[in-house]
Each structure stands twice: as structure tokens, then as C-alpha cells.
Design a protein that fits this description.
- The structure holds 2 protein chains of 2 kinds.
- Chain A is mostly beta strands.
- In chain A, the strands form 2 sheets. In chain A, strands 2, 4, 5, 9, 10 and 11 form a 6-stranded mixed beta sheet that branches.
- The N and C termini of chain A lie far apart (38 Å).
- By secondary structure, chain B is mostly beta strands.
- In chain B, 0% of the residues lie in helices and 51% in strands.
- Chain B has no helices and 11 strands.
- In chain B, strands 2, 4, 5, 6, 9, 10 and 11 form a 7-stranded mixed beta sheet that branches.
- In chain B, strand 7 and strand 8 form a beta hairpin.
- Classes of the chains: A mainly beta, B mainly beta.
């Protein structure tokens, strides 16, 4: 039973445009959410996180939005750059992050020059 | 640079032949994790160590064991690999539990013949 779902396996956008990556979760106990980015032949690297007490967190070009009622979060990248091309994983945890991370399957983002 | 190192990057073993995967870290982190990621699937936590305390996930098969002889090293032992154990195995570390960033190694891809 997938508790964290990334329903679109891939996304292709033009350089300079906005990339929107979506993630849905089913476990209402999740209260801490993260995005990881993974380049080929490397391990995932932490990108940005958000606690359930917030609905938005911003770090430079990256913004994560959380809609608790819809059990949905999204990652916005503006403007998108070719170096953002990677696989992006959504992850969630309960108990303020003290429970294990549950990952989604990942979404491949391609940013075309 | 401080990092998480996994050796080997690729491992081929025979059906039923024990295999050991290695992870080391120079971050001096307290927590070390082992994840299994099958093709097009989400990374799945197998177990983790908080210092010397071993924490096994309930659904991790008995075939998978782990050792952490010291802070820097953690090993994943697969006692009798089956074809279904072919996957990418990711090691990660974090300074502590809770809302702490996990730092991932590049992974070891295991092939079972």
C-alpha cells in the first residue's frame, strides 16, 4: 500500500519556465515532508522540507506547498534550469520527523535548454 | 569532503551465495540507514542503527542482517540472496533522529544470477 504517491513518472519543461512536481499522501499521521533530488550514479540529496504547521516553505528557486486537507504537496521550481534535470523524490514522516521516511517512487524532471 | 561511501558500486552474486555490502561515513553521524530500491519503486527502509541500537523494520525479511562495528562503518549482509533481492541498496546517515537531513551514499546495485 503506497502511502506516498507521485503519480506522474516524468515531466519535461523549457528552461526558464516553472516546474511543478506533485505528491499525494494517504497517511494522516504524516506531519513532516521532504523533497530529495537524485542525479544518475549519485545518491539522493536533500532539497527542501516542510512541517505540517506551515503551508509554504521557500528556498531560493524552490518552494514547497502543503495542502493538508487535500493531503497534497507540490514542489515549484522557478525558473527551471537544465541542471535541475534529475529524479525528484517526495518523502514523508510522522511524529514530527522522528518516524521513518516513507518515499514516493520518484519523478524524472527534464529541463530543456 | 565529508561523505557517505558505498562499496562496491556494483555487486554480482549467485543465487543463494551470501553477500555483504559496505557503507562508511566521515560525517560522524549517530544514525545509519539501509534502504532497498527496486526498479521504478520507492526506496524502502530495511533497518537503521541509532548508535549501537539496531532497529529492524517489521517487514524486512530475516534474510537481511546488518552490523555496525563502529560509528563509521555499517554492513548489509544478505544470507541467501534470491532473484527478488536484485535491487539498488542505499546507505544513508543522519546526525540524529527527528527532523534531521539524511545524507545518502551513491548506492550499490546488486545483481543476482
Amino acid at each position: 500500500d503506497q502511502q506516498v504517491k507521485q503519480n506522474s513518472p516524468s515531466l519535461s519543461v523549457q528552461e526558464g519556465r516553472i516546474s511543478i512536481l506533485n505528491c499525494d499522501y494517504t497517511n494522516s499521521m504524516f506531519d513532516y515532508f521532504l523533497w530529495y533530488k537524485k542525479y544518475p550514479a549519485e545518491g539522493p540529496t536533500f532539497l527542501i522540507s516542510i512541517s505540517s504547521i506551515k503551508d509554504k516553505n521557500e528556498d531560493g528557486r524552490f518552494t514547497v506547498f502543503l495542502n493538508k486537507s487535500a493531503k497534497h504537496l507540490s514542489l515549484h521550481i522557478v525558473p527551471s534550469q537544465p541542471g535541475d534535470s534529475a529524479v525528484y523524490f517526495c518523502a514523508a514522516s510522522a511524529q514530527g520527523g522522528s518516524e521513518k521516511l516513507v518515499f514516493g517512487k520518484g519523478m524524472k524532471l527534464t529541463v530543456n535548454p | 569532503d565529508a561523505m557517505v561511501i558505498q562499496n562496491p558500486r556494483y555487486q554480482v552474486t549467485q543465487f543463494g551465495k551470501p553477500v555483504t555490502l559496505s557503507c562508511s561515513q566521515t560525517l560522524n553521524h549517530n544514525v545509519m540507514y539501509w534502504y532497498q530500491q527496486k526498479s521504478s519503486q520507492a526506496p524502502k527502509l530495511l533497518f537503521h542503527y541509532y548508535d549501537k541500537d539496531f532497529n529492524n523494520e517489521a517487514d524486512t525479511p530475516d534474510n537481511f542482517q546488518s552490523r555496525r562495528p563502529n560509528t563509521s562503518f555499517c554492513f548489509l549482509d544478505i544470507r541467501s540472496p534470491g532473484l527478488g533481492d536484485a535491487a539498488m541498496y542505499l546507505c544513508a546517515t543522519s546526525r540524529d533522529q527527528g527532523q534531521e537531513t539524511q545524507y545518502f551514499g551513491p548506492g550499490t546495485r546488486l545483481l543476482v544470477l
